[in-house]
Amino acid sequence: MQDFSEQQHKEVREHLDLLREEIDAKLDEYTQFGSECPKSLMEPIRYSLLSPGKRIRPIMTLLACEICGSVRSRAIPAACAIEMIHTYSIIHDDLPALDNDDLRRGQLTCHIQFDEASAILAGDALLTYAFEILAKKVFPLGLAGECIGVLAEACGPRKMVGGQADDMTWNQSGVSSLELLESIHHRKTGMLILAALRMGAIIAGGSNLQRRKLEEYGQNYGLAFQITDDLLDWIGDEETTGKRVRKDKSQGKLTFPTYLGLEESKKQARERVEAACNALDNFKSNNIAYQSFIGLAMHLLERKK
User: Rounded distance, CA 54 to CA 220, Å?
Assistant: First the structure.
């Protein structure tokens, strides 16, 4: 993995902050629905979507577009669409019927701040609105169709939702294995990360090699992200993470620390981060986008939230 100078760290932070600001501004613009959308629906949508998230997935869409040699503004609609899908998924995951969480991103979850019906409808609206944005804002239309296909597959029954279903029911089978654990989280967490990268590369007209290397990065990043997320439930603190901790542990959920232990989980995270960084060796000439991808991966090993 590359060692960054203090100046490079500063440049990466500034670039990621800039991308985050661009995404937040567009999300704000896209959700100024006007009188056609009921206030009772617009408020929970904006409350959840504009909450202070890390914006990792949409940032990756913009970086993928940049690293493949195109102007990132072309990928802004796709970046916003993937954040809408991610937000819909966590609104619904937080509901009492699923994870039953009351804190997310340092604020009350949508169904606690409003009510369950409002949360369900806000999630439904964001899910469908994401595809409206892709269909109407990505050009040419052929690229819009390709992005729609990529995102629909990633969040559908065989991928994200299927992973969530297995995560909820794995203990009924009485079977647990590292293969099952990785399969659940490749679908539940990793597929949206891969979709983010794929859409950025599609919009930029990236080569087959570029797309393969970005996917290799995404597959390793996705597992490293989930491992470190699981570790935070064990060793993180609520004030920093902005969500409840020790919950997975107390419920005996199938997580990396429960299956592998703390030290082996940390080792696996380091190996996945290193593999993610190595996958991008062909992109080293594209400095700031390459360095930003490396910075995102390396940051996983220092995660506090």
Answer: 19
pTM greater than 0.90: yes
Q: Would you call the peptide bond into 140 cis, given omega within 30 degrees of 0 as the criterion?
A: yes
Greatest distance between any 2 Cα atoms in the chain:
54
- Range 260-296 burial, b when 16+ CB lie within 10 A, else e: beeeebbebbeebbbbbbebbeebeebebbbbbbbbb
Are the CB atoms for 150 and 228 separated by under 8 Å? no
Tokens of 139: 């050009």
pLDDT in tens, 252-271: 678 899 889 999 999 999 99
Per-residue model confidence as pLDDT tens digits over 171-201: 776 667 888 899 999 999 999 999 999 999 9
Backbone angles phi, psi at 208, to 5 degrees: -60, -40
Q: Which residue is associated with the tokens 């940032």?
A: 59
Q: Which CATH number is 12-302 given?
A: 1.10.600.10
